[in-house]
Design goal:
- With 442 residues, the protein is an alpha/beta fold.
- The chain has two domains: 6-70 and 321-441, Aspartate Aminotransferase, domain 1, CATH 3.90.1150; 73-317, Aspartate Aminotransferase, domain 2, CATH 3.40.640.
- The chain contains 14 helices and 16 strands.
- A hairpin with a 4-residue loop joins strand 2 and strand 3.
- The structure holds pyridoxal-5'-phosphate.
- Pyridoxal-5'-phosphate (PLP) is lined by residues 118-120, 123, 146-148, 208, 212-213, 241, 243-244, 268, 278.
C-alpha cells in the first residue's frame, strides 16, 4: 500500500519558509521518522483525513485531548452553541463556573481552580504559587518528565545519580535551571537524598503521576506515596502534573487511581476537549494566594474562554464509569495485539499501559525510567512507524510518546491495527536489517 503525499509535500515546502521547521510544535515535523508530515484536512471519530485524501486510524488524538474522538457531535454542538453568542468577552461567563464546578466535583484534592490556556501555563503558574506559598526557591523534577516549555522545566539530569542540572535549551539562564533539581523517575532514594541536602530550600516536587512523556511509565508501588510523605515532612508541596493523565486514566485522574492526594494539580488536554485549555488547582488556602484573591500574579486575556470551557465540559459529560470501562477494555486489546504479534516474530517488546494510554517500548521489560526507555530499538521504531503509516495507522512519531484511544475507537479498529502490525512488522524488520547490512559493508 502506498499513499499519495504530493499536497502535503507542497504545503510543507511552503511551511518551512514561513515557520521554524514548518510547524508550530516540534514533534509534528516527523523528524524522528524522517518523513514529510501529513497535513490534516479533517478528523472524524477515530480517523484523520489528510490533504491528499488518505485516511488514517488515529492513535495520537492531538497528543491526548481528544478522548471523545474527533468532532464528537456532543462537543461540536456545545461549542457551536456558545460560538454563536460571541467568542470572548474579557469578563466572567457561566461556562467557566460550570467547568470549574465539574473539575472540583470529580477531583477531591482540587477545591479551587484557575483556568489558563495551556499545560505550560498551568505548570509554570503552579510552581510560582508553590514558591510563593513556601517562600522557597528550588523545585524537584524527574528526568524524562515533561511539564511544558517554561524555563524551570527545560532541565535534564545526567544519568544515574541525581545532580544539579544545566539547562536543556539555549535561552534558559543557568541561574533558573540551577534551581531545578532532578532525580530519576521511580527512584525514591534519589529524592530522599535531595531532601537531605536541600530540604529547607525545596518549594515543590513536580511529577507526572504516570509518566507519559518518556512513553508510558507507571509509578512503582510506594513511589507516589513516598513523594507525599517526603514533601509533607519537609514542608514542601507536591504537584501532580496531570495535564496528560487528568480525566484520561480515571474519573478522578491519576490521583484517584493511585489514592495519593497532591497539594496542587495541573491539568490541560482532556479538560479542553481539543481547544486550548490548561488549569491549576488545589486546596483552597493555596489557590486563595492567587490574584486577585491574593498577591501571586497570574492573568490571561483569553483564559476561561467560553468555547474552550464548553468543549471541555461537553467532553467530561461523556466520561462516565461506562466510558472508562470501555476505554480500558479496548486499550487492553491493543496492548495484547502488540505483544502477540511481536512474540510471534521473536522481537522484544514491553507494552506499558495505564487506562487508555499505552506505549509499546521496543525494549525488554520493565521500563521504569527514562534511562530504560532510551534502550529502545529506535531504528526499528522508525521503520515500523513508516510501515504502519503506509497501512493507514497513524502512530505517534516518536518512540517516547503514548498511544491514546478514544470513545470513537472500536474493536474492529483494534483488530485492523493488529492485522496491519502483522504485515508491517516483518517489512520493518527486513528494512532495518538491510540498513544495518548496508552500513556494515560501506
Ligand atoms: C502536554 C503536557 C504539558 C504541556 O501542555 P501544553 O498544553 O502543550 O503546554 C505539560 N505537562 C504534561 C504532563 C503534558 O503531557
Amino acid at each position: 500500500m502506498s499513499e499519495k503525499v504530493a499536497r502535503s509535500e507542497e504545503l510543507f515546502r511552503h511551511a518551512v519558509e514561513l515557520m521554524p521547521g514548518g510547524v508550530n510544535s516540534p514533534v509534528r515535523a516527523f523528524r524522528a521518522v524522517g518523513l514529510t508530515p501529513r497535513f490534516i484536512a479533517r478528523g472524524e471519530g477515530a480517523y484523520l483525513y489528510d490533504v491528499d485524501g488518505n485516511r488514517y486510524l488515529d492513535y495520537v488524538l492531538s497528543w491526548g485531548p481528544l478522548i471523545a474522538g474527533h468532532a464528537h457531535p456532543h462537543v461540536v454542538r456545545a461549542v457551536r452553541e456558545v460560538l454563536e453568542r460571541g467568542t470572548s468577552f474579557g469578563a466572567p461567563t457561566e461556562e467557566e463556573v460550570l467547568l470549574a464546578e465539574e473539575i472540583v466535583r470529580r477531583v477531591p484534592s482540587v477545591e479551587m481552580v484557575r483556568m489558563v490556556n495551556s499545560g505550560t501555563e498551568a505548570t509554570m503558574s503552579a510552581v510560582r504559587l508553590a514558591r510563593a506559598a513556601t517562600g522557597r526557591r528550588r523545585i524537584v523534577k524527574f528526568v524524562g518528565c515533561y511539564h511544558g516549555h517554561a524555563d524551570p522545566f527545560l532541565v535534564q539530569a545526567g544519568s544515574g545519580v541525581a545532580t544539579l542540572s544545566l539547562p536543556d535549551s539555549p535561552g534558559v539562564p543557568g541561574e533558573t535551571a540551577g534551581l531545578t533539581l532532578t532525580a530519576p523517575f521511580n527512584d525514591l532514594a534519589a529524592v530522599e537524598e535531595l531532601f537531605r541536602r536541600f530540604g529547607e530550600e525545596i518549594a515543590a516536587v513536580i511529577v507526572e503521576p504516570v509518566a507519559g512523556n518518556m512513553g508510558v511509565v507507571p509509578p512503582v508501588p510506594g513511589f507516589l506515596e513516598g513523594l507525599r510523605r517526603l514533601t509533607r515532612e519537609a514542608g514542601a508541596l507536591l504537584i501532580f502534573d496531570e495535564v496528560m493523565t487528568g480525566f484520561r486514566v480515571h474519573a478522578a485522574s491519576a490521583q484517584g487511581l493511585y489514592g495519593v492526594e497532591p497539594d496542587l494539580t495541573t491539568m490541560g488536554k482532556v479538560i479542553g476537549g481539543g481547544l486550548p485549555v490548561g488549569a491549576y488547582g488545589g486546596r483552597r488556602e493555596l489557590l486563595e494566594l492567587v490574584a486577585p484573591a491574593g498577591p501571586v500574579y497570574q492573568a490571561g486575556t483569553l483564559s476561561g474562554n467560553p468555547l474552550a470551557m464548553a468543549a471541555g465540559r461537553a467532553t467530561l459529560e461523556l466520561l462516565d464509569a461506562e466510558a472508562y470501562a470501555y476505554l480500558d477494555r479496548l486499550s487492553a486489546r491493543l496492548a495484547e495485539a502488540y505483544r502477540e504479534v511481536f512474540a510471534r516474530h521473536g522481537v522484544p517488546i514491553c507494552v506499558q499501559r495505564v487506562g487508555s494510554m499505552l506505549t509499546p517500548f521496543l525494549a525488554e521489560c520493565p521500563v521504569r525510567n527514562f534511562e530504560d526507555a532510551r534502550r529502545q530499538d529506535l531504528a526499528l521504531f522508525r521503520h515500523l512507524f513508516r510501515e504502519m503509516l503506509a497501512e493507514g495507522i497513524y502512530l505517534p512519531a516518536s518512540a517516547f510518546e503514548a498511544h491514546f484511544l478514544s470513545l470513537a475507537h472500536t474493536e474492529d479498529d483494534v483488530e485492523r491495527t493488529r492485522e496491519a502490525l502483522e504485515r508491517a512488522l516483518p517489512r520493518a524488520l527486513a528494512q532495518r536489517k538491510r540498513e544495518a547490512d548496508g552500513s556494515a559493508s560501506s
